[in-house]
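Collaborator request, handled under Task 6.
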Amino acid sequence: MSGTIASRMSFSSLKRKQPKTFTVRIITMDAEMEFSCEVKWKGKDLFDLVCRTLGLRETWFFGLQYTVKDTVAWLKLDKKVLDYDVPKEEPVTFHFLAKFYPENVEEELVQEITQHLFFLQFGDYDPNVHKRGFLAQEELLPKRVINLYQMTPEMWEERITAWYAEHRGRARDEAEMEYLKIAQDTEMYGVNYFLIRNKKGTELLLGVDALGLHIYDPENRLTAKISFPWNEIRNISYSDKEFTIKPLDKKADVFKFNSSKLRVNKLILQLCIGNHDLFMRRRKADSLEVQQMKAQAREEKARKQMERQRLAREKQMREEAERSRDEMERRLLQIKEEAQMANDALMRSEETADLLAEKAQITEEEAKLLAQKAAEAEQEIQRIKATAIRTEDEKRLMEQKMLETEVLALKMAEESERRAKEAEQLRQDLQEARDAERHAKQKLMEVSSKTAFMPINSSPPALPADIPNFSLMGESLSFDFKDTDMKRLSMEIEKEKVEYMEKSKHLQEQLNELKTEIESLKLKERESVLDILHNESADRGGSKQNTFKKLTLQSAQSRVAFFEEL
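Structure tokens returned to the collaborator:
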């Protein structure tokens, strides 16, 4: 009895100690995950779990986003997950997204970007796989862009496929980096926009990004009117709906603006603090963590370079082996055709020889018969001469018969001579036919001896021992390399950098050519206001960086004054 009570008490105690949990759903760009979280967990606990699951180390660019009352918000890492306005319905849903953007993707992104930015869907171009129509079901471009040009889906696919094929063989990380470099040069890259009012009550847009704070006209989100880089801002705060910015230049006035919602001010402050911290962090020496990550990235790049070289070498050898096999198969087919022709020639030679032999035999028999008749005619002439012809009529008849007999004998002699010559020619033809037959048999034996050592399904030549049998389907590889390999690779990597810069320049030129090519197909009447503004900026030769520099040439005080007068 006491044992039963004790066990119940232990069970109750264990039950009370079990932490309460709730289900969280995390939506990434290509997958959904669910976790069981403890009620006491803070945002950092959940965020770290997600990052570990994704294998992500550059965590400072990302956050967990949710929506409350039609307003975007980010989970605070120092607060409990279920505190404040996070929706409580299970599963509690968050979107794992980029919260902050690099100032320069090529310099700042250390970890392999495929793990957390996007996955290339189609891989390298393969004409055997990427045939006509393979993009038919893909939404490659926004409908607004498609409607802007007088081009059918087939025309788009043709141009995209040609572009895709032209860049065959480009490394995946290079392709991704080029994509990000193009993205970061666009005017709206990494900018979060908020509707605000200055002291005069003028509606404006506040843009927050990696470079600083920017003020826009609500009708033009591409080109800022004024900008304040992070290194010019001393303090940012808000009270209720009023936001206060204190410039580093103490001579400049503090400028303020109002937003429509208190919750928006919280979001603005979060983004400002985060972007400012990353801005200052980029201008300091790398932390030990970042140094380790960069060292690992260099090692990983060297390892991938070796993998790429080995794969390229193996691919080249496989292609050569396949070409050799195809040539062997082609040659074997040719030899088989030659063998068939030789066999046919042999059969024809045998038939011809038989016919010639039969004809020669007949001719010889005819010649003998003619010779016999000629001899009989000659005997008849001698007999007639020996016979005494008394009468004149008999004499004339006899002379006529002798003449006829002599003509017949002459003709028979000529025919016999002709038949003899014909028989001799037939004997020569027969000999030639037999020689051709012997030659055909010899040729057939040679062909047969060749095919005995050339099977149709012959395997490609074996690869050298130092080339492992890697799969060409992108499976992971593992191998060791020495310091000498690292030195050689470092030189190759430097060489690759120069080639990469040339490729990037060539890619930009190709993009410009593509724009020029399809410009004639654009329907100007369908252009939006942003399209027109972008075209005007491009015609002026302006860039995002150049515009930002021009906007910050004036003093902070004059820019604050300009803001207040907008």
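The cover message to the collaborator said: "The chain has 13 helices and twelve strands. The two ends are 84 Å apart (CA to CA). Please let us know whether this matches your experimental observations."
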